[in-house]
From TrEMBL:
Record's protein name: Aspartyl/glutamyl-tRNA(Asn/Gln) amidotransferase subunit B
Source species: Alkalibacter rhizosphaerae
Gene from which this protein is expressed: gatB
Keyword presence, Protein biosynthesis: yes
Entry GO MF terms: ATP binding; glutaminyl-tRNA synthase (glutamine-hydrolyzing) activity
Family to which the UniProt record says this protein belongs: Belongs to the GatB/GatE family. GatB subfamily.
Domain of life: Bacteria
C-alpha cells in the first residue's frame, strides 16, 4: 500500500548576539558551567527583564529573508512548564502574535522546485542544559536566556530529501543575513520534526514530534526511520499515538519521551513585565535597506556574469563563506569556471576529509587565484597544482613560494623533454605501434610514462606534441 509522508519542521536558531535576550549576560559558547548567569536569566524574585533590541532586528531580518509579513505589533508571552533546566518554570516566548508570519522558501530537490510555507517566526529564550553524570544529573544554566528564533513551517514537505533541502536553505539564509552562526555542533541550529503518514488524498494522520536533531544527516535518517515505523504500525492495525519522541542517532532509532502537549497545556498568557514590540514602517524599511545580497540573487549573478551552470551556482552560494571565497578568487585570476572547479573539487574534498569548513582554510582567495594563474600561464601543471594546494593547506604559504622552494615549475624546454620522449617511446614499442595504427589511447599511456618520470613536472601538451612529432623516428 502506498503511503505519503507529511512533514513540518520547527527550526530553533540561536541568534548571534553578544548578550542574552533580557539581560546583559554573555552568550559566548563554552564558558565554565553557571558562570554566565544573573538574577534576571535565573528568574529570581523581583527582577525585571528588558528586551535586547538586536534580537528584534535579527528576527525581522530572518522574516524579510523568508518572505514573511512583519508584524507592526507583537508581544511576549509566558509558556508555563516545569523542567529542571528551566529555573523560572516558564519560558518567555511568543504565542498568538508572533513577529513574523506567512512566508515562503523555495527548495530544489533533484531539479524540482517547490515552495515551502513558513507559518511563523517567533522570538523566545533558550532553556539551560542538563548534564547526566554518574550519580546524578547536573544543571548548567549558562544557556538560559540565550536568544532564539523559532521558524515553524507548514506541513508541506513529503520526503526526507525535501526536509533536508529546507533545513539547508534556512541555514544558508541565516548565515547570509548574519542572524546566526548556525554552528550545529554548538547547538546554534536545531530541528524538531513533526511527521505523520497517510494514503494520498486522505486527511492528515496523527503526528509525532522528534526533538533537537542537530545535523542534516540526523534529520534525514530520523524522517526515514519514523515514517517506516508509523507505516509498520498502521499496517498492523495499531493506532499512532501523538507523542514527543527522542532520536538516537547512534542507534538509528527513536523512542517515546512523553505524550505530545497542546497549546492549552502550557497556559500561555502575556508576560506582564515586558511591553509589546511595536515596529514602525521606517524601522522595517531601514532593515530591508541594510540586508546583504541573498543567495538566490548571487546565484542568478553567477549564472549570468560568470556563465556558470545552475548546479555550480547552487553549490557555491549554499555557503556565504564559499561564495565570498569564490568571488575573491575570481577577482585575482579572472577565471570563474576554474575557480569553481577547485572550490567544489579538491578544496571541498580536503575540508570534508579534515571535518572542516571554509572558515578553517589557511590560505586566502587571492592565493588560490594566484595558483590558478600559475596553471593558466603554464608555470605548473594541474597535477602539480594539487601538490601546491595541499602545501597551501598545510602552511598557508603563497603558491609562487611553494613552487620555487620545491622546484615544481613545469618543464617546458623542448630539448630537455625530447630525449626523454624518445627513450620512453623506444622502451614501449607496442604502444608506439598501436598509436601508428590509430589507437589514440596509446598516447595517453606514453604521456603518463613521461609524467611519472618527471614527477608531474613535464608540460603534458608539449609531451603530446613531441610524441606525434617523433613517432616516425622510432
Amino acid at each position: 500500500m502506498e503511503y505519503e509522508i507529511v512533514i513540518g519542521l520547527e527550526i530553533h536558531s540561536e541568534l548571534d548576539t553578544k548578550s542574552k535576550i533580557f539581560c546583559g549576560c554573555s552568550t559566548a559558547f563554552g564558558g565554565e558551567e553557571n558562570t554566565q548567569t544573573c538574577p534576571v536569566c535565573l528568574g529570581l524574585p523581583g527582577v525585571l527583564p528588558v528586551m535586547n533590541k538586536k534580537v528584534v532586528e535579527y528576527a525581522v531580518k530572518a522574516g524579510i529573508a523568508t518572505n514573511c509579513t512583519i508584524a507592526r505589533f507583537s508581544k511576549m508571552d509566558r509558556k508555563n512548564y516545569f523542567y529542571p533546566d528551566l529555573p523560572k518554570a516558564y519560558q518567555i516566548s511568543q504565542f498568538d502574535l508572533p513577529i513574523c508570519e506567512h512566508g515562503t522558501v523555495e527548495i530544489n530537490v533533484d531539479g524540482v522546485k517547490k515552495n515551502i510555507g513558513i507559518t511563523r517566526i517567533h522570538m523566545e529564550e533558550d532553556a539551560g542544559k542538563l548534564i547526566h553524570a554518574a550519580g546524578g544529573t547536573l544543571a548548567d544554566n549558562n544557556r538560559c536566556g540565550v536568544p532564539l528564533i523559532e521558524i515553524v513551517t507548514e506541513p508541506d514537505m513529503r520526503s526526507a530529501a525535501e526536509a533536508r533541502a529546507l533545513a539547508e536553505k534556512i541555514k544558508t539564509i541565516l548565515e547570509y543575513t548574519e542572524v546566526s552562526d548556525c554552528k550545529m555542533q554548538e547547538g546554534s541550529l536545531r530541528f524538531d520534526v513533526n511527521l505523520s503518514v497517510r494514503k494520498p488524498g486522505e486527511p492528515f494522520g496523527t503526528r509525532t514530534e522528534m526533538k533537537n536533531l542537530n545535523s542534516f544527516r540526523a534529520l534525514e535518517r530520523a524522517v526515514e526511520v519514523e515514517s517506516k515505523r508509523q507505516i509498520f504500525e498502521i499496517e498492523r492495525g495499531n493506532p499512532i499515538i501523538q507523542q514527543t519522541r527522542k532520536w538516537d542517532d547512534d542507534k538509528g532509532e527513536s523512542y517515546a519521551l512523553r505524550s505530545k502537549e497542546e497549546a492549552h497545556d502550557y497556559r500561555y498568557f502575556p508576560d506582564p513585565d515586558l511591553v509589546p514590540v511595536v515596529l514602525t514602517e521606517e524601522y522595517i524599511q531601514n532593515i530591508k535597506g541594510s540586508m546583504p545580497i541573498l543567495p538566490w540573487v548571487r546565484k542568478v549573478r553567477y549564472m549570468e556574469d560568470y556563465n556558470l551552470s545552475e548546479y555550480d551556482a547552487d553549490i557555491l552560494v549554499s555557503s556565504r563563506e564559499t561564495a565570498e571565497f569564490f568571488e575573491g578568487t575570481v577577482a585575482v585570476c579572472k577565471d570563474a569556471k576554474t575557480a569553481a572547479n577547485w572550490l567544489m573539487g579538491d578544496i571541498a574534498a580536503t575540508l570534508n576529509e579534515k571535518g572542516q569548513t571554509m572558515a578553517d582554510v589557511t590560505f586566502t582567495p587571492a592565493q588560490l587565484g594566484e595558483m590558478i594563474g600559475l596553471i593558466n600561464d603554464k608555470t605548473i601543471s594541474s597535477s602539480i597544482a594539487k601538490q601546491v594546494l595541499q602545501e597551501m593547506f598545510a602552511t598557508g604559504k603563497d603558491p609562487k613560494v611553494i613552487v620555487e622552494e620545491k622546484n615544481l615549475a613545469q618543464m617546458s624546454d623542448t630539448s630537455e623533454l625530447k630525449g626523454m620522449v624518445l627513450d620512453v617511446m623506444k622502451a614501449n614499442p607496442q604502444s608506439v605501434e598501436d598509436l601508428k595504427n590509430g589507437k589514440e589511447k596509446a598516447i595517453g599511456f606514453l604521456v603518463g610514462q613521461i609524467m611519472r618520470q618527471t614527477k608531474g613536472k613535464a608540460n603534458p601538451q608539449m609531451v603530446n606534441e613531441l610524441i606525434r612529432e617523433l613517432i616516425d623516428q622510432v
